[in-house]
Amino acid sequence: MFLSPYFSKQNQSISVSAQQASDFAKKIAQDFNPIHDVGAKRFCVPGDLLFALVLTQYGLSQNMKFTFAGMVGDGVELQFPEQVSDSFAICDNREKTYLQVSRQGDISRCDAQTESFIRNYVAFSGHNFIDILMPLMKQHQVMINPERPLVIYESMSFDLTSLDFVEVKLSLVQQELKIDGKRGDVTLHFELHSGDTLVGTGIKTLVMSGLRPYEEAQMQQMCAAYEGRKTEF
Fold first, then answer.
1. How far apart are CA 97 and CA 47, in angstroms?
2. pLDDT at 130
3. Second label for 141, Cα 20 to 30 Å away, from 173, 194, 197, 207?
């Protein structure tokens, strides 16, 4: 299983160290958000790793929705029940909820299919900041706080018309930003293709906080800092 280096499991308890989370973010998702760095003041495990662990443990369902309810810290013990229904939550050993999952339809447990789905989704997700969020902020003339940049992964859902595929590719088809004071709600619509065949659609939502008027120089500094971290890695 390609996720093995990025988590530890004992019985039904799964934990992710800061180093494992950072390695997943950079090596698999190409995500260089400093919040996933070892030693970061507000460190958290990437939401995409939680998503990937759910698919690995419980299979790929035709219709799934993931709603993130909390930020997972270094070494938090998450309980992954052996058996789950069509609606379940991933909690810690104190019953604090971090992720809510709902699913419907047929379930695939093909390792190659699940790995392709995870790799392609998290690669798409990892490029959100530079390729999608920065142009959106410029378009709407707002920006996040460059001193404390905070973008929170809120939810993701997808609907597959068929599970008759192995390799899948994601492509963005629409993006929108709704601004309410200092809060920005981002909605990304994507399609999933197997070769030339459309096999599904999906939606990802993010929340940007601490919005302020757009300043080109500061945005360029943020972009340069992000790209610099990528190059350094």
1. 13
2. 83
3. 173
User: Is the pTM above the cut of 0.90?
Assistant: yes
With 80 as the cut, is the pLDDT of residue 108 above it? yes
| HEC assignment per residue over 135-175 | HHHHHHCEECCCCCCCEEEEEEEEEECCCCCCCCEEEEEEE
Distance CA 31, CA 156 (A): 17
Residues 124-146 as b/e (b if ≥16 CB within 10 A, e otherwise) read bbbebbeebbbebbeeeebbbee
pLDDT in tens, 149-191: 778 899 999 999 999 998 999 999 999 999 999 999 999 999 9
Q: Which structural domains are found in the chain, ordered by start?
A: 6-230 (3.10.129)
